Hints:
The structure holds two protein chains of two kinds.
Chain A: H1 2-19, H2 51-59, E1 61-63, H3 73-88, E2 92-99, H4 106-126, E3 134-140, H5 151-157, E4 159-166
Chain B: H1 2-14, E1 37-40, E2 45-46, H2 52-68, E3 72-74, H3 93-98, E4 103-112, E5 115-124, E6 129-130, E7 135-140, H4 144-160, E8 168-176, E9 183-190, E10 197-198, E11 206-211, E12 217-222, E13 229-234, E14 240-242, E15 250-256, E16 262-269, E17 272-279, E18 285-287, E19 295-300, E20 306-311, E21 318-323, E22 326-331, E23 338-344, E24 350-357, E25 360-367, E26 374-375, E27 382-387, E28 393-399, E29 407-413, E30 420-421, E31 427-436
Parallel strand pairs in B: 1-3, 1-4, 2-4
Antiparallel strand pairs in B: 4-5, 5-6, 5-7, 8-9, 8-31, 9-10, 11-12, 12-13, 13-14, 15-16, 16-17, 17-18, 19-20, 20-21, 21-22, 23-24, 24-25, 25-26, 27-28, 28-29, 29-30
Helix pairs in contact in B: 2-4
Amino acid sequence: MNILKKLAVVLLVLATAACTDPDRFGGGAGGAGSGAGADGLAGSASDPASPQFFNQTIGDRVLFAVDTSTITDQGKSILDGQAQWLLTNTDYRAVIEGHADEQGTREYNLALGFRRANAVREYLVARGVPASRLEVTSYGKERPIEVCSNETCYAQNRRAVTVLSFSAITS
Amino acid sequence: MMKRILAFLVVLVLAAPAIAQNGPLRLTITDGVIEPITFAVPSFEAESLQAQQVASDLSRLVVQDLAGTGLFREVPATAFISQVSSFAQPIAYPDWRAINAQALITGAVTVSGNQLIVKFRLYDVFSGQELGEGLQFAGTVAGWRRMGHKVADAVYSRITGEGGYFDSRVVFVSESGPKDNRLKRLAIMDYDGANVQFLTDSSSIVLAPRFSPNGDRVLYTSFESGFPRINVLNVANVGRQQLQTAPGEMAFSPRFSRDGRSVIYSLSNGGNTDIYRTDLSTGQHVRLTSAPSIETAPSLSPDGTQIVFESDRSGTQQLYIMSANGGEARRISFGEGRYGTPVWSPRGDLVAFTKQNAGRFHIGVMRTDGSEERLLTSSFLDEGPTWSPNGRVIMFSRETQGAGGTSSMYSVDISGRNLKPLPIQGGASDPSWGPLQP
Lengths: 171, 438
């Protein structure tokens, strides 16, 4: 029993390791709600304790207006759900990834994506999620999920995605 | 009637002052319209059988370099009256004057084993004398292109009175794959797109490389860890290590100081991005800006005393200049739209930048006090200018629109003339132009 449990943890850690490879965005990242990044974590969307539930039912991402990092009302309700989930499922950590659309210079967009990721982290922390479980990064305009060059795509690309990883160490 | 014809002839002669020049051959590069200097390059003499191919290729490369500037125009070999079969042979000036070649470049190539020796002479045809002395360069047969660039640099320099830029390299990001899964790897090439070599693989995103002042190292931003970090790469052995920055969640936008001994860069903490400097030998960090806004894309003045950078402290991206030690900054960009990625010119007089306005992107230049702004390009997405070693040409990235959009590199004169793409395979972005090679 003990060995099995350990084995399961090892497998989950392996899956998490695979998730930290930035090229994981390769497969199916274009599909809406594909939960970019957390595909390696097991579970089904009907299980409220599963990462799939977090990614698809609650929503793993919030969107932003042009050149802003202000969280919208819609964003707030998604993040309220994320915070609640993280408070219940304490074995998970998250990396919040900020992104920008292509309408901006590369380095500015990195900084802008970081601002967005940080705005999400601050919101989640304000809702009680320990800051120690949340990391932030930014991909700037390097990883669009929609590829057209107009506002319908840009709106989807200006996002902050909360990417879960399993961590047995977290209290 | 006869008088009329005579008058017409006089006008013709007067209308061609560039050809019937007085004094030595000299082209002053100005922002005005330039009448290109005409030149002829008879194929360099091969001093041995095995030198034939390289002699011919090398002469063509000299022509390409010079004509590629838009400042020189080749008189093709089909127009030649006399041939130059021997490097030592005296020049029949009237034959070159007759075909309006203002400059004549002759050369000879020797190959022995792996060694290549190139000699050349430059003649001022209308003054009927040699311009400067004959020069000789030695190198390897494999490195023949560098020898050709060196000849062209010497010619450019003697005629314009300015440094050349042909024997230089550019580090850039080579791109492949679709827009939503783009693979990026660091690569290096000659200034003209030849000899592309990869410096990293494409397993993680790399961005915005920058050459060290003497070209021995490259700084770039890497996503190896999933978080933007700065790497230093040794060009000769491709060894690389992470820069130990001040503590922060993200580090990016690195550039070397003018002496190559420290790095200025952006560091992000708690959503805020500021500019820092780290001394490479002591590991000491100095924070140069402390504003709640985004401060990034720093670039040092040639004398190393000032930094131009971008900040959105006013609400949108604008350009500012501060002391290299930080402190108060003054805004220099006041036109419409947003300004980013400032790069101080090697001559010190201009700042190149990316401007975003009314849905278009431009590469532009302005004086360091913000005056005389000039936009050189316009497209869906131009960004990231870098200066040629002599401060006459700017290279940048241009991305095309839409789902199939790709990135390529272009160069343009600071006059806005001679815009052209770099002829390399695949996508490419973020060029950083290195120094003239020794």
